[in-house]
Amino acid sequence: MESQFNYTLIGAFVLLFGAALIGGVLWLSADISSRDYKTYRVYMTESVSGLEDDASVNYRGVEVGRVRDISLDSTHPQRVALLLDVERDVIVRQDDAARLESTGVTGINFINILGGTPDASPLRARKGELYPVIKSNPSLLGRLDATLSILGKNLMVTSDKINDLFSDANRESFAQILSNIETVTGSVAVRAPKIDSALDGFADTMGNARRASGRLPEIMTRAEHSMRSIERTTSRFAIVMENLDQSVITSGRDVERFTAQALPEATALIVELRQMVANLRRLSEELARDPSTIIFGSPERNRGPGE
To answer: Most buried of 28, 41, 162, 274 (most Cβ within 10 A)?
Structure first.
């Protein structure tokens, strides 16, 4: 009798515990289902390996929903279609983007929605679509894989170019260039004394040119003085000719005055003209003998004894 009583107590306890467990599950389920969600669709072209149904959906790192379904897009098999249940009070905007991410050490994948600008309008379903579509951005691994792929292609192209550069024909051309350089350097070494002599001659020429340029102001001053003398002589000659015209027109008494006044001036003018012509003749003869005197000047005259 006592044994049967113990079995009855145990059975009643099991029934009560089971009822309490079922009630708790139902209560929790009722609490979860009481939340209001809005469904969005995301298309991804990269692998979603590690992402499972009921994975968390975050908005700027805050959990706001769950992944409802993962499947291939029937119209574009290269894409993966995700259905996301996001809390209705979270406003997903037109410029928001979803990205596949993983938690630190555990590596559990989840969907993170990156918020756009606050001025953007809320995302709505387009005509003919059942759910609003959130655009997707490549994950960190996807970007790294794309970068490594581009880097690998660039390395292959660089390797091919290096191989082309060191082809047999290019190596022979390079060897020929080195041979030509060696020939040229040998020729330069043989002609080094002549090159030194030419450089010395060029240095002397530059020195002479420097000295000549130093004497240019003096030459220009002398030329300016000569031009002024010619101008003065021409002016005086014009005055004399004017006086001569006036003297011819005037009476005989004026002729006597012309003879007394203008004739000495004309005589002096003729003497100056003769001296000028003689100077010009000597200058032309000196230039004919040595044209360099116009730059370097007349050579110094050897002085005699006692000078």
So the answer is: 41
- Across the chain, what does the average pLDDT equal? 75
Amino acid at 235: S
Strands 133-137 and 80-87: unpaired
In a domain, 79, yes or no: yes
Say if residue 82 is exposed, middle or buried (CB neighbours under 10 Å; 0-12, 13-18, 19+): buried
Q: Among 138, 172, 193, where does a domain finish?
A: 138
Residue 145 makes CB contacts below 8 A (sequence gap 6+) with: none
Contact 110, 51 (CB under 8 A): yes
199 assigned to some structural domain: no
The enclosing H or E element of 70 equals: strand 62-72
Tokens of residue 191, six digits: 């002609």
What whole-number percentage of the chain has pLDDT above 90?
Answer: 10
Span 201-256, pLDDT tens digits: 777 777 766 766 666 666 677 667 767 777 777 777 677 677 666 665 665 555 55
Q: Which residue has the higher pLDDT, 261 or 40?
A: 40
Percent of the chain with pLDDT over 70: 69
Q: Which residues contact 56 (CB under 8 A, 6 or more apart)?
A: 63, 65, 66, 67, 110, 111
* Rounded mean pLDDT, 281-293: 62
Last residue of a domain, one of 92, 111, 138: 138
**Cβ atoms within 10 A of the Cβ of 69, count?**
12
Range of the domain at 63: 35-138
Whether 31 has a pLDDT exceeding 50, the answer reads no
Give residue for tokens 């080195």. Answer: 178
What does the pLDDT read at residue 76?
Answer: 87
Q: Is 97 exposed, middle or buried (0-12, 13-18, 19+ CB in 10 A)?
A: middle
| CA-to-CA separations, 119 to 62, 63, 98, 116, in angstroms, rounded | 21, 23, 19, 9
Is residue 301 a part of any domain in this protein? no
